[in-house]
């Protein structure tokens, strides 16, 4: 089942509300997510947030997938 409204943030898993100890990033994400509730015209609705995590290597998704595959092998 799809959520009626969602905000997508392309950050590593476990960091849905922003970078640790970076209050501006965290507050911006929460504000953008909440403002979507005012602007969404119907369900389902999804907005992709423009935030980026520039201090990590691109492709964190691939790295996470490899770890999951390794965990499944054990």
What do these coordinates show?
The mean pLDDT is 77. Strands 1-2 form a two-stranded parallel sheet. It has two helices and two strands, in the order E-H-E-H. It starts with a strand and ends with a helix. The chain has one domain (5-73). The chain is flat. By secondary structure, the protein is of the alpha+beta class.
Summary?
The chain is α+β, with helices and mostly antiparallel strands and 74 residues long. Helix content is 42%, strand content 11%.
Descriptive labels:
alpha+beta, 74 residues, single chain, 2 helices, 2 strands, two-stranded parallel sheet, flat
Topology diagram in text:
Elements: E1 5-8, H1 23-39, E2 45-48, H2 60-73
Parallel strand pairs: 1-2
- The overall number of domains is 1
Strand-pairing-aware structural class: alpha+beta
Catalogue the unreliable spans. Answer: none
Share of helix, binned: 40-55%
H-E string: EHEH
The average pLDDT is 77
Strand order of the largest sheet: 1-2
Strand percentage: 5-15%
| Quantity of strands, as a count | 2
Radius of gyration: 15 Å
Number of helices: 2
| End-to-end C-alpha gap | 30 Å
């Amino acid at each position: 089942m799809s959520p009626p409204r969602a905000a997508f943030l392309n950050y590593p898993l476990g960091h849905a509300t922003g970078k640790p100890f970076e209050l501006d990033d965290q507050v911006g994400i929460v504000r953008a997510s909440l403002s979507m509730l005012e602007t969404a015209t119907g369900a389902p609705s999804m907005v992709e947030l423009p935030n980026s995590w520039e201090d990590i290597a691109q492709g964190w998704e691939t790295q996470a997938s490899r770890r999951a595959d390794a965990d499944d092998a054990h």
